[in-house]
Design a protein that fits this description.
alpha/beta; 27% helix; six-stranded mixed beta sheet; FAD/NAD(P)-binding domain
Length: 396
């Protein structure tokens, strides 16, 4: 995770083509996932447009978690299918993604939270996920940093864990280049032209690309892309900050990726140190300036459920974006009023862990195929329909 950019020894297309079958806007893990899924099925003349460098947006700064520990069935399915893909990734793409299957540990500190974890475990079990509901003492056995007296229980999914996002972007990128995908870095989309209900051209700082199909995988920048064609994508950028503790001469105990539902505090191993953070309350804006203001909330949470982590000895850290939607769940689908405009965005902090399956699902939608799941719950249209928003509990 320290290495966040795709290696520069990859050879990219030097010139922008005049036409494409599909233009994918965004060269992060989502854009590269759907590009690979389409190219692997024989779709040609795919162009990926990235305004900076590959993986430098939200994909550069995630926590690296991969899990199927959700409460909503759709999120469980996306998580499980992606977990399966990540287990095969090194074999399939020839890139070591530093997969660490230490499991996910969600902490409950109230009876209501524990009831929610029980309910989620039932949903997960029905979809083939191994989930264990733990007593406070059992949670401490898995993670000795925890204070048992602060907990009512926990849920543990042993097949979950974390991996290196940059390595995943690298793997997809290498495979895409082998399949002839045109990748344009430092190329900004300035406008998208349409004639009635048909997309006709994508305008970038390099010129125009004639196309009838666009996939918006622009993460935190997606709302602006939608505005270009009159499609409302309710995605807002929200800064999130994490810290990396000082590397120790001897490693910490290996612990699951641990999250406290009450406060959204989280931590997991990072080499001989720890990655720590909390979903600090932030306003919606484009700002990736790093600060330590989140530490006040982190320390307050740690003082209760993991006292040894209070006032962590930080050596490094970073700020990145959540790409939040109103219900903090993904947008996956095709615009109902503009055929040919597809979206794969708004994952609200769980994009990396759902990227392989989400890219596959959008590729199925693009090709008109029946997919492994019903994509309609992730349509942007849900926000216009009373009672249709997703109700996910296990998110931070």
């Amino acid at each position: 995770m320290a290495h966040i950019m795709v290696p520069l020894d990859l050879t990219y297309s030097a010139s922008q083509p005049e036409a494409a079958e599909v233009v994918i806007i965004g060269g992060g893990v989502m854009g590269m996932s759907v590009a690979w899924h389409l190219a692997a099925r024989g779709v040609r003349n795919i162009v990926v447009v990235e305004q900076a460098t590959l993986g430098s947006g939200s994909s550069a700064k995630p926590l690296g978690g991969i899990r199927a520990n959700f409460s909503d069935p759709g999120n469980v399915v996306l998580g499980k299918r992606s977990l399966d893909a990540y287990r095969r990734f090194s074999r399939d793409f020839g890139v070591d993604i530093e997969l660490s299957r230490v499991g996910y540990l969600f902490l409950a500190r109230t009876d209501e939270e524990l009831d929610q974890l029980h309910s989620s475990a039932v949903t997960q079990a029905a979809l083939g996920i191994r989930t264990h509901i733990l007593t406070p003492a059992e949670a401490v056995e898995l993670n000795p940093f925890l204070e048992a007296s602060s907990l009512t229980g926990a849920s543990f999914t042993p097949d979950d864990g974390h991996a290196a996002p940059a390595k995943v972007v690298e793997g997809y990128t290498r495979a895409c280049l082998d399949l002839g995908v045109c990748i344009l870095e430092r190329t900004q989309v300035l406008d998208i032209q349409r004639s009635a209900d048909t997309i006709t051209e994508v305008i970038t700082n390099r010129g125009g690309i004639r196309t009838n199909s666009v996939i918006c995988a622009a993460g935190a920048w997606s709302a602006g892309i939608g505005d270009m064609v009159g499609v409302q994508l309710p995605v807002e950028p929200v800064r999130r900050m994490i810290g990396l503790t000082r590397q120790m001469s001897a490693p910490h105990p290996t612990v699951p990726f641990t999250l406290d539902l009450s406060t959204t505090m989280y931590f997991h191993n990072f080499r001989n140190g720890l990655l720590v953070g909390i979903s600090h309350l932030e306003k919606s804006e484009f700002c990736r300036e790093y600060s330590y203001e989140w530490l006040r909330e982190f320390n307050a949470a740690a003082s209760i459920c993991a006292p040894a982590l209070e006032n962590p000895d930080l050596q490094a850290g970073w700020a990145g974006y959540y790409e939040n939607t109103p219900d903090h769940n993904a947008l996956i689908g095709e615009a109902c009023d503009l055929p040919g405009f597809y979206y794969l965005t708004g994952f609200s902090g769980h994009g990396f862990l759902q990227a392989p399956a989400a890219g596959e699902l959008l590729a199925d939608i693009y090709q008109g195929r029946e997919s492994f799941m019903d994509p309609r719950p992730f349509s942007v249209e849900r926000f216009a329909e009373a009672g249709s928003c997703l109700r996910e509990v296990n998110i931070i």
